[in-house]
From TrEMBL:
Gene3D superfamilies: Homeodomain-like. It comes from the Eukaryota. InterPro entries: HHO5-like, HHO5-like_N, Homeodomain-like_sf, Myb_dom, Myb_dom_plants, SANT/Myb. One of its GO terms (molecular function) is DNA binding. Keywords: DNA-binding, Nucleus, Transcription, Transcription regulation. Pfam families: HHO5_N, Myb_DNA-binding. GO terms for cellular component: nucleus. The gene is LOC105177678. Residues 321-360 are annotated as: Disordered. This is Myb family transcription factor EFM isoform X1. It comes from Sesamum indicum (Oriental sesame). It is found in: Nucleus.
Length: 360
DNA sequence: CCCGGAATAT
DNA sequence: CATATTCCGG
């Protein structure tokens, strides 16, 4: 939430930005999950992981807590100042004519615009089953690796080499990269048809996280963005978005060319070849779909030099700068033999022009 | 079950 | 609009 107050003289600014609070699952979910792990030795580390996450969250909340008095003070100041100002004008009426221009809304006024109150329920007990959402909590360093996926043992002995999904680490400092996003907030609209599982016996109360109460009188100067961080009442939330980091994509592309191009490679093969832990078939499939779509669209509209940047990227070398040319230094691995249909069809578009290359 | 593609959601 | 997830028919 960000508070910002600007009043003529004593304009101070308070900006506490506390994102939502996150925990991947309800506590009972976690306990259940851990209790089902076979490998005893891993239970502890799993739990530690969660503990760590929670501690991190607590730290954020703590900052929040410290700033709250300031917020209150600011609000009080503002209110007080405005009230005084209001009083100054109380006596003298200018006549009913111009009243509309003066937005003083000290008191009654009622209906008008009470827009700020985001009060739904004033439950204050967080903690009952705080459910938030998970972030691949990679702190800072590139090396820290944690695979979020819970129930994976190990597949294939070769495993050591890779598990990295670093969505968060972005090298160029340019962007403001928010560590967390606000929770989707109050979505009043109901999900569509399914979700029919309305009635659960043991309906765990998933309670929206606390709500601050602030003076209803707070004037317009102070804008309050809702505290947010609501739980998702739905037990089955949508899968966390897999973010395809450049590394991940690189692997993808590599695997792809080993398999003979985007058109012939199949998701499962790709996934197996990538050997990235936690990557699911569907995710690869989806990525592949996007990839295929992107490839097949140049010639139609005259205008576009399409952006193939996502394939052209390379990280280890810092070489290509200008996009104008076509920096082709692709290290081609094994021969690209085509799979399946070797037929030479001169039909419409070139069958397989794999390899991302930009013609024309 | 796997795949491709469309419909949706973010 | 781009990208990721889910649904659906083959």
């Amino acid at each position: 939430m960000g508070f910002e107050k600007k009043m003529g003289e004593n304009s101070r600014q308070l900006n506490l930005d506390v994102g939502s609070i996150f925990v991947p699952k309800t506590i009972s979910d976690i306990l259940t999950e851990v209790s089902m792990m076979h490998d005893f030795s891993k239970k502890s580390s799993k739990l530690d992981f969660y503990v760590h996450s929670l501690e991190e969250e607590m730290r954020k909340v703590d900052a929040f807590k410290r700033e709250l008095p300031h917020c209150m003070q600011l609000l009080r100041d503002a209110i007080e100042t405005l009230k005084k100002e209001s009083l100054r004008w109380k006596g003298r009426e200018m006549g009913p004519v111009m009243e509309e221009f003066i937005p003083l809304k000290g008191d009654s006024e009622g209906g008008g615009r009470a827009k700020l109150s985001t009060d739904f329920s004033e439950k204050k007990n967080w903690m009952s089953s705080v459910q938030l959402w998970s972030t691949p909590v990679h702190y800072e360093n590139q090396d820290s690796v944690l695979s979020l996926r819970s129930r994976h043992q190990e597949e294939e002995g070769s495993g050591i080499d890779s598990q990295f999904q670093g969505c968060n680490n972005i090298k160029n400092s340019g962007g403001a990269f928010l560590p967390f996003k606000k929770a989707p907030g109050l979505s009043i609209k109901e999900q569509k048809r399914d979700s029919a599982s309305a009635v659960n016996g043991g309906l765990s109360l998933s309670i929206p996280v606390a709500e601050l109460e602030l003076e209803s009188e707070s004037p317009d100067l102070i804008s309050v963005k809702e505290p947010s961080a609501f739980l998702r009442p739905q037990l089955q939330q949508r899968k966390q978005r897999r973010c395809w980091s450049p590394e991940l994509h690189k692997r993808f592309v590599d695997a792809l060319q080993h398999l003979g191009g985007a058109q012939t490679a199949t998701p499962k093969q790709i996934r197996e070849l990538m050997k990235v832990d936690g990557l699911t078939n569907d995710e690869v499939k989806s990525h592949l779909q996007k990839y295929r779509l992107h490839i097949r669209k140049l010639p139609s509209t005259s205008g576009g030099t399409r952006d193939f940047s996502w394939v052209a990227q390379e990280l280890p070398n810092k070489q290509m700068v200008a996009h104008s040319g076509s920096p082709q230094d692709h290290l081609n691995l094994g021969g690209s033999a085509k799979r399946g249909s070797g037929s030479a069809i001169g039909g419409d578009s070139m069958e397989e022009d794999e390899d991302d290359k930009c013609e024309s």
